[in-house]
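Predict the 3D structure for this chain.
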Amino acid sequence: MPMLKAALLNRRRLDRDGDLALDPLTAVCDLEVHDDVRPDGIIAAARGNEVLITKEVDVTADVMRQLAEDGVRLICEAGTGYNNLAVATARDAGIVVCNAPRYSTTGVAQLTMSLVLGIASGTLDSVWRTARDDYSDFTASPPPSFELTGKVLGIVGPGAIGQRVAERARSFDMRVLTSGRSERSWSDPGMRHVSREELFAASDFVSLHCPLRGGEDSTQGLINAEVLAGMKTSAWLVNTSRGGLIAEQALVDAVAGGVIAGAAMDVHASEPDEPSDKLKKSERIYLTPHVGWKPIESRRRLLGIVADAIRAFGAGAPQNVVS
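Done. Predicted structure below.
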């Protein structure tokens, strides 16, 4: 049986350092590689291929319908989130869409806790100031720091990543509150599942680990001015999930006004463009460039999951199909 013809639309997004071998993909498909296809070039890049491999490329409903007409039968999103894809249109047009769940669980949990630790130890503040040639921390009082023992970490979305973060937080003797769409119970006495309102009110850190969804159960702008006003003035917000979960102007205003202490964000609403100036200029909002998923081990795992999805589709048994 001939291999499926596939196009990888943005290799550079997956492999900026050149360390990632594409062997898992070339073993299961006839692969055409593009470094960086923008949304307006998707149709041309896909021509002649049955499979597309994307990484956070926006594929609109109109483009999705055209891809179906051109013979695309499978789109593999090389990531967990797939809000960049017009999934409902793909389904109606006969295109199967798969994602790659859990490939970055360890990496994102690791980054989340590094941000929490960086806030508690004061190192994020010191690095931010030193990068701007402000060396006052060396001669004056250091930035405020505190121990994590006994502090409360609220996890919004206690799925695979959220649970891994909880495990690491518990190793620092933090207490953990979780909240999500379904009820949970935990055997660990240091963890409780509570309402979202209680979580925001009681947490010293709130960490977001829920997907970005539209529709009736939308999470777009989940963190807005009202929610921020319900948090402790000493609380910190951490987002390693999706930028659209936060109403960014409301966050900037809340930090500037002392409504909350600050935030650390690995994601922002305007990706892949740079964060807005309002985020970059805030002294109490620390930004990293969406690096949680990028450890080499995570990316190798990711290619393996995508390769398995292509192989399964070719065998007539699609896996990791999203709806």
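The longest helix spans residues 296-314.
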